[in-house]
Every structure is written in structure tokens, then in C-alpha cells.
């Protein structure tokens, strides 16, 4: 299933990663990385496991600090913000974790209410309920409202995780391996949901994945992390139209084997 | 050697930052009252069965073990006074703290560590919620308030155990026993008990949340955090007991 073409304003950059490096001890994960995310686009970051894809979005959300370089998000330099400023900015960034990261001691309703009541303290109970029901309906899981995360399937957990980030109406979505560990049909559902979120909430998104079917279905543009750097970028066809031995096996494994 | 010292200094800096962060979040609004009450219930109410049994046994056994020494001097009538001072001044806070270190400390350490492993703490941070306020402050406040409550309860149940031990051999009414107990206890003994319990409660909360929050990733990290929470809490409680005894004897 191909991605619908959406209008992307290339003059409006919502995330700009400038010359960023990040190491963990002697392990250099990212080396002088540059990246831009345009308003309204879905940007897929491809790469093998351990190449620093997740580190990149943790740097963007301020969970990690770069060793070198700057990260601009919605006009703010993330790595120079204090705690309070960072918390305010994060309300505009949704982060969908690889393992959903649902609060396992809370019901689905409480999971969704959690960020809402802490960031929008003037909401009434009726307004909170309305928001929760609306966002749950959006991900097609209205019936799960009183269930515990342990009672949900992997795909349902992913959906609730996405719903929890959407409840704050973010401008930017960061998806960390959204289809990891899911069966092919559930992957399709999640991919459709990512596209639906882009259209319905007008988000700009970075999708971290090594699943090429997902990349093809959700990405407006793609970049590939190779040896700590973005060495290839463009459309799906442009990325894989190469004899580069570091890239070819990636395609072959996903579509030929 | 230099690297070890560097690591130690980094650890101290992190503990200092953690403490400052807790103090800032504990006093600044908005307050997480609902979560504090939930934690008080988890830490306090759910510890009652274990604390009751332990407190009773400690009072009973301590009284039984003390009898022969007093019998040598024909002073068994002093047993209520002796056990009341021992239980109120030292045993109740120490026993409560040690039981809480094991039960509450491991629970907090494992819970926060598993939240860390499953990225639930990161999820809180990226959703604009302050995990220090919600996870750390609430638990430390709950242990600091509930350990003194449990301590008073242990003192009461320990004295009851002491009474049953005495009444098995001597003919003494419960009223006469508690009259002697309250005659022996001074206000400064109660004060010493409360001080100990508050310090121990804070220590258990702080040490357990710290090791849980900064645990290493992976399932092994959860086990290590639970273990480290118990060991560090108990170790610190004993060190503090030593210091408090010295300090109180200086004050008189």
C-alpha cells in the first residue's frame, strides 16, 4: 500500500538537527548528524539495530543531551532549555515508545488522563472524559477504556500509547519502531493509524524503523543512518536504487528473502 | 584508584542533585495529594499485618529474655518499666525501620526500576509530567509520614506482647502494667522515638527511590535495585541509629 501524497511546506522547518554527535563511552553512535523535518511531513529514519535511531529521537525530545551540536525543535534549542522550558516544549511533542510504555498500574482511562490532567489543570471532569473518549475512538479502542494494559494485545497497547500522546494534541510525533514485534496485519493497522494521525491532527512526524513495509507505507521522505551518519536520503526508490553493499541487503531481506 | 574516586564523586553529585530535586518538587505546587494518599495506603496500611506480628514477637521475646537478669536481683517488678523504655526509645523505631526497609524498600526499588526498564519514567518525562514530583516526592513523603505512625503502633503492640509475657508468670492486670509503663516513659523518650522514626522513614524512602530511579536497564537491574534498596536502607538506618544515640545522649 503506497503513501498518499501530502502537501509539505519545505520553508517551514519544525525540527533541525545541526551537526550533532553522541557517544556512550567509546561507542560513537551519531557523528556530526544533520537533519531537517518539514512541517506536515512524515520522515522515516531507517537503519540497522544499534545505529542510533532511537538515540536520535531521545535527543530531539530532550531525554538525552548531545555531546556536540544543537537541536532546534519548534524554534527552541532543546539542549539549551532548562527543565521547566523543556517540559513546556514537550507538551507539543508526542513520543510513541517501542514497547508502548503504558503505566501498568493504571487503567487505559487513567493512562490517557495522566498527561492531560497534569498539563491542562483547568479542565473539568466532563471535558477530560470527552477528550479521553474522543482520542480512544480515534484509535478504535473505545471498548478498552477500563482495561488494564496487561489485558491488551501488543497492537492495542501500541494504539493506546499513540492515543496517550495524541491527547495533548502535539505538533510533532516521534514514533520509535511502531511496528516492532507485531504481526503483519497489525503492522498494517498501525501504519494506517500513523497516516491517519498525520492527516487528522496535522502532525509532523519522525518514524524510526527497520521495517521497510512500514517505511514505504507511512514515509513522505526517508533518511538512512549508516555508520552514525545520514548518508542517503530521498524517496523510498531513491534510497534503495543503489549498489551500496551496506544498503542492498536491507532491501533484499525485507522484500526478496 | 583515580577512576574510583571520580566515580564516587559523580555518585555524590548525583545524590545531591536528586535530593535538591526532591526538596524543590516536594514544596512547590501543584501537589500530588491523591498519589501521596495512595502511597500512604500502600506503605502504611499494607504493612500492618507484618508489623503487627513482628512488633508483638519482639515485645514478647524481649520481655522473656529480660526476666532472668532481673530475677537475679529480685527486681521482676521493674519489667514493665524496663521494657517500656527499651521498646519506646530503641526497639520500636528500629524494628519498624528494618521491617519497612525489607518490605517497603524492596517494593519501591523494584517498582521504580521496572518502570525505568519499560520506559514508563521516560514516557512521563516526554509527556510534560515531572517524574520527580509524581514518583519520588510522593513516595518519600509517604514513608516519612507512615513510618512514625507504624512505629507508634509497633510500640503499642510490642508492649502488649510484653504484658502477655509478664502476665504468663506474674499476676498483673493490664491496667497496672500500662500505669507502670506510662510512669516510666518521659516526654523525651517519645520525642526520641518520633525523631528516629521520621529520620528512618525519610532514609528508606530516599534510598529506595534513588536506587530504583537510577537502576541499570534490563531485568537484572530490577533485581539489583530491589536488593540495593533493602541493603542501603538497612545500612543507613543502623548508621543513623548510632549517630542519633550519640546526639540524644549529648542533649540529655
From TrEMBL, chain A:
Transmembrane helix recorded as keyword: no
Organism: Sphingobacterium arenae
GO molecular function (one): ATP binding
Sections of the chain in a coiled coil: none
PROSITE patterns referenced in this protein's UniProt entry, alphabetically: ABC_TRANSPORTER_1 (PS00211), ABC_TRANSPORTER_2 (PS50893)
UniProt keyword terms in alphabetical order: ATP-binding, Nucleotide-binding, Transport
Pfam family, one: ABC_tran
Entry protein name: ATP-binding cassette domain-containing protein
Superkingdom of this protein's organism: Bacteria
Record carries keyword Secreted: no
Stored SMART domains: AAA (SM00382)
Domain annotation ABC transporter: ranges: 15-252
TrEMBL record, chain B:
Protein name: ABC transporter permease
PANTHER family hit by this protein: ABC TRANSPORTER PERMEASE PROTEIN-RELATED, PROTEIN TRIGALACTOSYLDIACYLGLYCEROL 1, CHLOROPLASTIC
Keywords: Membrane, Transmembrane, Transmembrane helix
Gene source species: Sphingobacterium arenae
Transmembrane portions of the chain: 43-63, 78-100, 140-166, 198-216, 228-251
Amino acid at each position: 500500500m503506497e503513501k498518499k501524497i501530502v502537501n509539505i511546506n519545505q520553508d517551514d522547518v519544525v525540527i533541525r538537527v545541526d551537526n550533532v554527535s553522541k557517544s556512550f563511552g567509546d561507542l560513537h553512535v551519531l557523528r556530526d548528524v544533520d537533519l531537517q523535518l518539514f512541517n506536515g511531513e512524515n520522515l522515516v529514519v531507517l537503519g540497522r539495530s544499534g545505529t542510533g535511531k532511537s538515540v536520535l529521537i531521545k535527543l530531539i525530545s530532550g531525554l538525552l543531551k548531545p555531546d556536540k551540536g544543537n537541536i532546534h525543535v519548534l524554534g527552541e534549542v532543546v539542549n539549551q532549555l532548562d527543565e521547566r522550558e523543556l517540559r513546556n516544549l514537550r507538551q507539543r511533542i508526542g513520543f510513541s515508545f517501542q514497547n508502548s510504555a503504558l503505566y501498568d498500574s493504571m487503567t487505559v482511562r487513567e493512562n490517557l488522563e495522566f498527561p492531560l490532567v497534569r498539563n491542562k489543570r483547568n479542565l473539568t471532569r466532563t471535558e477530560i472524559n470527552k477528550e479521553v473518549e474522543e482520542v480512544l475512538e480515534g484509535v478504535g479502542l473505545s471498548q478498552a477504556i477500563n482495561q488494564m494494559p496487561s489485558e491488551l494485545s501488543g497492537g492495542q497497547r501500541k494504539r493506546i500509547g499513540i492515543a496517550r500522546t495524541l491527547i495533548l494534541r502535539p505538533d510533532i510525533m516521534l514514533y520509535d519502531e511502531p511496528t516492532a514485534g507485531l504481526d503483519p496485519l497489525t503492522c498494517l493497522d498501525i501504519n494506517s493509524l500513523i497516516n491517519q494521525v498525520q492527516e487528522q491532527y496535522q502532525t509532523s512526524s519522525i518514524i524510526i524503523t527497520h521495517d521497510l513495509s512500514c517505511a514505504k507505507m507511512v514515509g513522505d521522505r526517508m533518511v538512512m543512518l549508516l555508520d552514525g551518519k545520514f548518508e542517503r536520503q530521498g524517496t523510498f526508490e531513491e534510497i534503495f536504487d543503489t549498489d551500496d553493499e551496506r544498503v542492498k541487503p536491507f532491501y533484499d531481506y525485507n522484500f526478496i528473502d | 584508584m583515580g577512576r574510583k574516586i571520580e566515580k564516587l564523586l559523580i555518585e555524590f553529585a548525583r545524590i545531591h542533585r536528586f535530593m535538591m530535586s526532591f526538596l524543590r518538587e516536594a514544596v512547590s505546587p501543584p501537589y500530588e495529594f491523591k498519589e501521596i494518599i495512595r502511597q500512604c495506603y500502600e506503605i502504611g496500611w499494607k504493612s500492618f499485618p507484618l508489623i503487627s506480628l513482628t512488633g508483638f514477637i519482639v515485645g514478647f521475646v524481649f520481655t522473656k529474655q529480660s526476666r532472668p537478669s532481673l530475677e537475679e536481683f529480685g527486681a521482676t517488678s521493674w519489667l514493665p518499666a524496663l521494657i517500656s523504655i527499651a521498646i519506646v526509645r530503641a526497639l520500636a523505631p528500629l524494628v519498624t525501620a528494618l521491617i519497612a526497609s525489607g518490605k517497603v524498600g524492596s517494593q519501591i526499588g523494584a517498582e521504580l526500576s521496572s518502570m525505568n526498564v519499560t520506559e514508563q519514567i521516560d514516557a512521563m518525562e516526554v509527556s510534560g509530567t515531572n517524574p520527580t514530583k509524581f514518583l519520588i516526592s510522593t513516595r518519600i513523603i509517604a514513608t516519612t509520614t507512615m513510618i512514625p505512625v507504624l512505629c507508634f503502633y509497633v510500640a503499642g503492640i510490642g508492649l502488649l506482647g510484653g504484658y502477655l509475657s509478664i502476665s504468663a508468670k506474674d499476676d498483673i492486670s493490664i491496667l497496672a502494667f500500662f500505669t507502670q509503663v506510662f510512669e516510666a516513659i518521659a516526654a523525651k523518650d517519645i520525642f526520641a522515638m518520633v525523631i528516629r522514626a521520621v529520620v528512618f522513614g525519610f532514609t528508606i524512602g530516599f534510598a529506595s527511590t534513588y536506587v530504583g530511579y537510577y537502576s541499570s536497564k534490563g531485568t537484572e537491574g530490577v533485581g539489583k535495585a530491589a536488593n540495593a534498596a533493602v541493603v542501603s536502607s538497612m545500612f543507613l538506618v543502623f548508621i543513623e541509629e548510632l549517630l542519633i544515640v550519640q546526639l540524644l545522649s549529648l542533649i540529655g
